[in-house]
Fold these 4 entries.
Entry 1:
Amino acid sequence: MVDEPKFKRPEVVNDDSLVLYCNQYSYYCQKVLWALHEKDIKFTKYEIDVANDEHFSEWFLELNPRGELPVLQKGLLIVPGSTRILDYLEENYPNNKPLKLRWCENVKLQNLKNSLDKLPIGVITMGSFLHPRTVVAPKSPFVQPVRYTILERDESVSNRLRGYAKAFPAFSEVLQKKAEFHDRKRQMLASEQYFLQLLDVLDQVLADAEAELTKSGDDKIWIAGADISLLDISLVCLLYRLYVLGLEDRFWTVGKKPQLEKYFNRIMASENFQHTLPTKTSLLKTIWLNTPSTYKAGIAAFSFSSMIIGSTLLKR
């Protein structure tokens, strides 16, 4: 049995307001945050304390029994998952900037978008922690001590889920299945060969993106033309995740995919993307709170130098 997370449901100000429950380091939350800023939709952001299992607290499980982020709430309406949320925003805010690709525009771009959305970002993230020789220079917050803590917590996720299943019988079946899935995922990720094969699949998807960007030419900021689309949001958020994991040299830098590198560097500087990034203060706090005590003597200096090195691509 685990200790039940001691969290209370936040109060929603009024039924007309949009509330986004998210975590600042989640790839899926980042996509939704970017879309909300691009569409200039007013919303309230509520940061879920994932490190202390707030997403497995009873109040959050009532919103999403799977305990997954992000979740969008408007009054009694609950929309879980980034794909559903992005579709909801497109359908219910038609007067705001449209982000959805039209099928008639380019079937190859639609196929690229579908391939990006099918990539298991969480598996790729954990795999890079389990097989560190595949990465070169991880960025904040995924520096070595934090990766150690995340791996340690990941080892106990299944047991914690089974404990929460007992604590909250109404959600028992979903949490038990989630624990079983996590066990299978850990078993697969233990194989470095499996992880390398997954990286090969990812490399092919990025090669397809490079081909489309080559067609677009340097005069177009976005991959599908003059305006940003959900394809750009998926692709850039993926590239940013690979960058902070320390995988950029494997996929697109040092001349491997020059158009992708130019595209990434160009869009990273855009104001609305910058709104999705954690602040430097938040990054330092996260590193400190997730660093084992044995590391803390030297982590402050290391974190500071890491932050300076990556400052041009982080929150400005």
Entry 2:
Amino acid sequence: MATFKENHEILALTTEWRSGVGVLSGVSGLDGSRLERPYFDDVSPRNVSSVVGQVAVLRCRAKHIGNRTVSWMRKRDLHILTSHIFTYTGDARFSVLHPEPSDDWDLKIDYVQPRDAGVYECQINTEPKINMAVMLTVEAAAATIWGSQDVYVKKGSTISLTCSVNVHSSPPSTASILWYHGNSVVDFDSPRGGISLETEKTEGGTTSKLLVTKAALTDSGNYTCVPNNAHPASVSVHVLNGEHPAAMQTSNRASSYLTSQLSCAIFTYLLSSVVCR
């Protein structure tokens, strides 16, 4: 017969499921004590996007781990990257963020590269082992100019071009993004005057707004936004001297139609000449 002490050590286990991860949560004894096996507090995003050259943080919150260990593994090659607070890779870009005494065991990747994209698993060495997968997507650093690729403005009005870059410059400054008009850098101190630039840091990166007041016909041409850490973007600006772009486009279509009809007539005439001979 079991002693009172032995009975006291008998534990009743119940299993419940949280966010698709099996959690062995009910651990109780005769004295009413209750322990809880580790589980993931599934409040962090399972899909993370980062930009080449930036920092990526894959979050993992592990509850009630006790004396167990939290590790991060790269799924594509099954390489253990970190275990507890230690790093087990020669790539110094990888590290674990674990501010004591929190339950957070976040994987930090500095200077993200395209090859870093893929699935990573946060693991707890229970028996059986439990894990939580996080997908990392890596985007190219690139600029985007808002609106159409062709911008039409009336002579004397203001040319307004806004360029967004999906990376941050710290701190944001006019030097972080250059604007070109054709092959020349836009000169804000030129005798022409009326040219200004506003650069600011946004949640998604950096935004640069170019303003050219009192647009002249010579302000037409190709404008390019060139960040110092991303691919550039360009638009074509057309300064119109009283002509509406819709009318200009209609005129172009009419011209193309007349050219097509004339070509057809010439071809028909030549063909009939050959047949008659």
Entry 3:
Amino acid sequence: MDLFNVYPINPINIVKAKGSTVWDAAGNAYLDLYGGHAVISIGHTHPHYVRRLTDQLNEIGFYSNSVEIPIQKELARLLGELSGKSDYHLFLCNSGAEANENALKLASFYNKRKKVISFTKAFHGRTSLAVAATDNPNIVAPVNETDNVVFLPFNDEEALQQAFDSYGDEISSVIIEGIQGVGGIQEASVPFLRLIRSLCDQHNAVFIADAVQCGYGRTGSFYSHDYAGIDADIYTMAKGMGNGFPIGAISIAPKFKAVFGMLGTTFGGNHLACAAAVAVLEVIKQDNLLKNAEEVGQYLITELKKIDRIKEVRGRGLMIGIDLPEDLSTLKKELLEKEKIFTGEAKPNVIRLLPALNITKAHADQFLEAFDRRLKVL
């Protein structure tokens, strides 16, 4: 049997990883500023993380949600503390798409409505309703198509107001990334996020903050939406939550009331996944990684903005987009092949930096020096 060939992959076999360095089978070291797509939040094979998982696996790795799982409550307490949402409730699942799926479903249960507002260049996942709310027709199968999702221009306050004027009390929820990842590191404006909050309050619609990629401390705040000074009704999360172990979740405002059978999952919130997530939060707290993400990220952004050949530098904290002109379209490939640095991308020519939250200024300087070297030969 062969693999189903759906991924364009780099011909590199990573066999070892530590911190922000990974090694291939030939022994070459790479600086990892991609983190497996914003997943590695506290560095590869962090000793506290490895110890937490090992200890848990030696006790019990899995049982379903038909029994008490105390580590779920430990995770909820820590998450509430670090996110500043201690009065919210936690539902655990397995991925970002599943988190968004459950958030959209919960919103519809709450107000008994069907219409969802999403935005241009949004990416919310690949499952049924999550992909229907994703602005990429190439990954929306006919069975996923629905008239219940309305796409509006990102950051367009007038269009948002008009949509609520038109659809009013038909709107179940508005879902938005604080910073669009796949969309090219586009940041939602403070007035736009505040207008979403205001209109949702007026119409009893649900504000869903998709923090799957832009959350978990990546921007220097726990959720990227926090910079607007508002609270969403539901926060979705996944990528950086388990540092590579599959886990997702939604954080749910107190106004939602749980009913047996409303949401469910077999694997979500299992012992091993929760041990991974608890370890991540413990390291974020102990090592003050939100502050590190803010400081090292701002240093990178400031230095990159000094480079004339870059069209634009966007982002916040350690979620950075470097928008390049067409003549530098090969730069990402050059950084990987010639400088041994992993980065991400967004079409057409945006390099995405999504490193671990504990990268150092020395790592940042290593990247900046390599970036400068490549510019001189391109």
Entry 4:
Amino acid sequence: MAKKPAAHSAASKTSTPVAAAKPPPAARTASGSISTPSVTPSKPLTATSLSPRSSPQEIIVHVWNRYLQDTPSRTMLLDTFMVWLVVVGGIQFVYCVLAGNYPFNAFLSGFCAAVGQFVLTASLRMQTSERPPAGASTTAKKTTSKTVDAVSGELVEDGKVSTERAFADFVFGSLILHGFCVNFIN
């Protein structure tokens, strides 16, 4: 059996990122000068901190940009649903004030359904949040202990339930809430 050359085997073991190492190719313009394409960042660059004298508009824009950068899409979807529930509850309340509340049970049922669903969605958002609370230390996050729940048999990290179980609880609570609301209309 013939041995492979050492240079060939060493070169095959090392991997170099080809696309990251090469600069973008230069292009020639019509006048003959060489121009390189400008590289634009994929996300807009924002200031990392605000000054104490920032205007309210700058603060709002900064908070909105941080929200868009740091928030996962699942959490944004839950936030959008919560905004929709606030709009629905507000419309029901304004209608009740302007047009009257003759079927008062129907108003109470619809408004309580919107408020109750908002509370359940907020609970789901808190349980499925991927970011640790603001007061939590980073060392505590690394030393989490895992236990097995005696009733369900699922793996639990320091009292935190899995996202699947949180969603199942959300669906179960929503069914109970809307069952009571439909029953209360009559």
